[in-house]
Amino acid sequence: MGTDIKAGIHTVTIAGGPLAFPCGKDDTILSGGLRAGIGLPHECLSGGCGKCYFDLAGGAVEDIWLEAKGLSPRARERGRRLACQSRPLGDCTIKLRPDPALAPPIRPARRPARLVSRRMLAPGMAEFAFAAEGAARFLPGQFALLQLPGVAGRRAYSMSNLANEDGRWEFVVRRVPGGAGTGRLFEMEEGAAVELDGPYGNAYLRTDTGRDIICIAGGSGLSPIISIARAAVADDELLEHRRITVFYGGRGPDDLCTTTFWQENRRLHTHAECHVAISDPTAAGAADWTGHRGFIHEIVQKVLASADMPNFDYYLCGPAPMVEALVELLETGASVPRGQIHYDSFF
Ligand SMILES: Cc1cc2nc3c(=O)[nH]c(=O)nc-3n(C[C@H](O)[C@H](O)[C@H](O)COP(=O)(O)OP(=O)(O)OC[C@H]3O[C@@H](n4cnc5c(N)ncnc54)[C@H](O)[C@@H]3O)c2cc1C
Ligand code: FES
Fold first, then answer.
1. Which InterPro entries match (predicted)?
2. Residue 4 has what pLDDT?
3. Ligand 1: distance of its center to the CA of 140 in Å?
4. Which atom of ligand 2 is found nearest the CA of 84?
5. How many domains does the chain have?
6. End-to-end alpha carbon distance in the chain
7. Ligand 1 geometric centre to CA of 275 (Å)
8. Do residues 294 and 342 both lie within one domain?
9. Proximal ligand: closest to the CA of 153
10. Please, is 101 exposed, middle or buried when counting C-beta atoms within 10 Å of its C-beta (0-12, 13-18, 19+)?
């Protein structure tokens, strides 16, 4: 398979092995590889985690976001690149080690989509629903990349609903002050067009382990956790043997919007225990707050103090520092095996 000039498709070969895949003109090396079903190392697809780095062994690539923080300036100087921020300019050869465990369980695809509804959940926090042709196929906990009109680069948002035949993709999004993507998203009119690419992500619900499920989210990390909790409580077989506990932290009471979902979904109400916490004593309404106070990793530690922590599956989502603190607490502090901790850091 060589360059198909008409279709703008180039062949990317992984050095030292038989693997090669086609990469379309709008694809990065990472999205091209994942579309072909190859387990290229990755996590965020947003230039933040650095897990998709590779060395170029032949050919040329275009770096589409030079400021991406996932690579240090030193690594860049040495010629290292991020597969999620590199587009091939012709056929090329790359050096990296694929991991079959990271092959996408559902092949990601790009599709046009339209905003069909938006509802505010809390100040600066809204649920957006998009409609796209065909069924919406994804696993609970996965995310999609949205190309928003007039915004440079794609933004990752995790689905909050469940896979469905209607082509409906829902996301809970927190508005970031000064953020280009969320600024655009929160101003979009119903009917506005975007491009939706997905599903991506490895922090999806594992249904067959037999272990109880602990979901922990901070701020905008709520979206995938709602999807995971919704899927778990909808599964009668899973509920027979497994308990579901959700922890959710925000700065103040205004940031916490789990109540909406728990009120709307009877099964969440009866089958998923929910602990919410605020971390900022100066936030509006904090003086009257009677629930947990502190950072969410502290609350997890307190609530699970007498539990058999190494024997649960953990799903973590939210800002990178929160996820790092939790991974440290679980792995080092509580001896939870790495394979039982699934997370997405929001860069
Ligand atoms: C796996 C994952 C899942 C996420 N899920 C959610 C979710 O469900 N809900 C939610 O509220 N947030 C989520 N986020 C965060 C979200 O993707 C955005 O970072 C956040 O909304 C802020 O975007 P912004 O454009 O407003 O801010 P900005 O500060 O303008 O941009 C923030 C991010 O956008 C990307 N970016 C910026 N400029 C460029 C560029 N030129 N080229 C390429 N990329 C660029 C970078 O990742 C950057 O960190 C998720 C992030 C990740 C990695
Ligand atoms: S997957 Fe490329 S930096 Fe995270």
1. 2Fe-2S_ferredoxin-like_sf, 2Fe-2S_ferredoxin-type, Beta-grasp_dom_sf, Cbr1-like_FAD-bd_dom, FAD-bd_FR_type, FNR_nucleotide-bd, MRET, OxRdtase_FAD/NAD-bd
2. 58
3. 20
4. 2
5. 3
6. 36
7. 26
8. yes
9. 1
10. exposed
Range of the domain at 76: 10-102
Query: Which DSSP symbol is given to 164?
Result: B
- Can you give the CATH number for the domain in which 188 is found? 2.40.30.10
Query: To which residue do tokens 């198909």 refer?
Result: 4
Tens of pLDDT along 26-42? 899 999 999 999 999 99
The SS3 call for residue 98 is: coil
Distance (Å) of CA 291 to CA 108, 163, 273, 336:
40, 33, 14, 27
Residue 2 pLDDT class (50, 70, 90 cuts)? low
Of ligand 2's listed atoms, the one at least distance from the Cα of 53 is: 2
Ligand number nearest CA of 155 is 1
Ligand nearest to the CA of 28: 2
Mean pLDDT of 232-237: 95
Q: CB atoms < 10 A from the CB of 221, how many?
A: 28
- Tell me the per-residue pLDDT of 52-65, one tens digit each, with 9 for 90 and over: 999 999 999 999 99
Residues 217 and 338 in one domain: yes
For residue 255 the two structure tokens come to 């940031």
Determine if ligand 2 sits within 6 Å of the CB of residue 81. no
Which positions ≥6 away from 347 have C-beta within 8 Å? Answer: 44, 46, 47, 48, 49, 69, 70, 320
Q: Whose CA is nearest to atom 15 of ligand 1?
A: 346
